[in-house]
Amino acid sequence: MRVALAQTDCRLGDVAGNLADAERIIKESATEGADLVVFPELSLTGYALGQLADDISLWTDDPRLVDLSKHGPDVVIGMLEDGRIRRHNSALYLSDGRVVHNHRKLYLPNYLIWEERKHASPGQHMRAFDAAHARFATLICNDAWQPMLPWLAAQDGAEVLIVPTNSAAKLTAGSFDPAEYWHDLLTFTARMQQCWVIFVNRVGDEAGVRFWGGSRVIDPWGSAVATAPVWDESLTIVDIDPHSVRRRRREIPLLADARLGLLRRELERLINESGDD
């Protein structure tokens, strides 16, 4: 399976222009024999939604979206989804002119400069799904920082985790370095869930924030098999073997003894004790 990491710098609010750029990149990826092209989080709309006066959300059945997957490769692309009453930070998996899967971001950060809950509502489901080349799951940016979600995806059979991201460069004078955290997190996730991880981060400057890129693919042993440059737009092509996941999980069966009943009982206890539903 050949994957294209489309590390782009989108223009805030310019949906038509970003769609045109995406189509160009997909066509270029097709000439490289790509089976899948992955774009960053909110790549069609931009991130700083609070700076826009107009509603630029898109319906999932917008024909411009499904047309993106008619050039050969499957496509994962991020947008602000029009959910009628609510809006969602969503990533669509498109294939052969149809929406195979829609993941709505589950954990919307509201700290430092991030105010995602002002502009989007959290999703309610996390599901693995089958496409032509593998069984996938999508986790948008901060979703991947929640330890239970990659594990749930793997328990649902995901062989490849797709992580579209808008990660900014270092924001404070302290020791928190997002790039370093992402490196450790992606390596840990791939090793412990024994799966491929496709991380695609954006680049460029927007609303006083600079995004660093550094997109990469991690194999089920935790090794980076491809890494995009920092700061600059790029198209990185890499071949992966989803079948190696089964081999790795057979070598060391970390996921086989999940004891889901035990987890259900303890989660129910914690819910009852905390009132958090």
UniProtKB/TrEMBL annotation:
One GO molecular function term? N-carbamoylputrescine amidase activity
InterPro entries membership:
Aliph_Amidase/BUP, C-N_Hydrolase, C-N_Hydrolase_sf
Q: Which UniProt keywords apply?
A: Hydrolase
Q: Where is the CN hydrolase domain?
A: 1-242
Alphabetical list of Pfam families matching this protein: CN_hydrolase (PF00795)
CDD domains from the UniProt entry:
nitrilase_8
Q: Which residues cross the membrane?
A: none
Protein's GO biological process = putrescine biosynthetic process from arginine
UniProt-recorded name of the protein: Amidohydrolase
